[in-house]
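Sat 14:20. Reprocessing the chain from the morning session after the first attempt stalled halfway. Input below, unchanged.
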Amino acid sequence: MPERDESRWATALSWSAVLLDGFDLVVLGTVLPVLLQQKVWGLDAGSASVVATIGLVGMTIGALAIGTITDVIGRRKALMLSVVSFSVFTLLCAVAPSVFVFGLLRFLAGLGLGGCLPTAITIVNEHSKRVGSATTTVMTGYHVGAVLTALLGILVISDLGWRAMFIIGAAPAVVLVPLMWKYLPESEQFHTERTTALSAMKSLFQGRYLRATIAFGVTSFMGLLLVYGLNTWLPQIMRSAGYQLGAALALLLTLNAGAVAGLLLAGAVSDRAGLRRPTITWFAVAAVFLALLSVKMPQLGAYIAVFVTGCFVFSAQVLVYAYIGRTYLAGNRATALGWAAGVGRLGAITGPLVGGALLTAGIAYPWGFYVFAIVGALGAIAVTFVGRSPAAELVGEQPAQVQTTDDAGRHADRELGV
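Finished this time. Tokens:
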């Protein structure tokens, strides 16, 4: 297959896989108001938070393990395995007979899904010369999936019920997996990375990588706390502020529509200005607009504010992933992305818990937005501690993706001490 065609297939199929992650990001927030209103399985805000948390625990484990897995079986097989696993257990959620089984299935789906995003980002980074735009482009799938899911929630749940959402979420795998089997290329750097898999995790906490690894972990924690906290509870918070269910779900859709626009902007900016300053700026601006959402405003103003908030909140976290791809070498890039995504999932667990606690206490509006604004500010501070890129030092400030496979392997082996 020609190199250009390989790059296109890698981007398109990785984008489609990340779209499924976007589905899972929003689907629980979409069905929760109905589950709570109908008291399905006796669900209340507390037990709903537990269900949201257990699914994210599965994603955390999957994300932390994926770096080593991809270095053993390859990026291609790892991504297909993630999609198949997530889709099967998501389909089974539609027939869950109890809250316990539903939570267990969410956990098992999370194991596969947790590895989807870091593997997809690794694939597109290793098939592209522009880290920033490659990452933000594939991550538009994340929010296109979220937007489509929020829209489906408005159109489907009232007529077909909440279980239909999980059937729809599993259906794309029927087409996607065969296409991946036939067209998804393996990274040329895979064979090099296999030789350094045992050293990769250790290298993240040594020498010049140590400060960056800690800073990226903290920043990802804050970033995914915002992403999952808002997507899980924004409809319910807005209902607390007096909005009807339809308007609240429409605001969730608006939030993720803003995310897609923000990703396109962030990719263009980062290709010109680098990744450090845009990442800091995006978190800082997100904090400002999150605080503004605490102000009661006309409905049109609320839609505009939520759209702009989505532009900066979600692409801030994506810039973190791109920044990681620029900082680490071929020998530990997948492991670094898995580490950041895994630690970030702990933030994803915390976000719904924080939102649920504020709702239970009856203070989610406006205090929820103040809490989220503080988290955004902490993310901006944390990313300032990322030091000079070891990858840039070794390759003369050129993006790691521009290297040949042999050069990448030699640089990675030297840096990882193998």
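The domain at 3-416 is CATH 1.20.1250.20 (Growth Hormone; Chain: A;).
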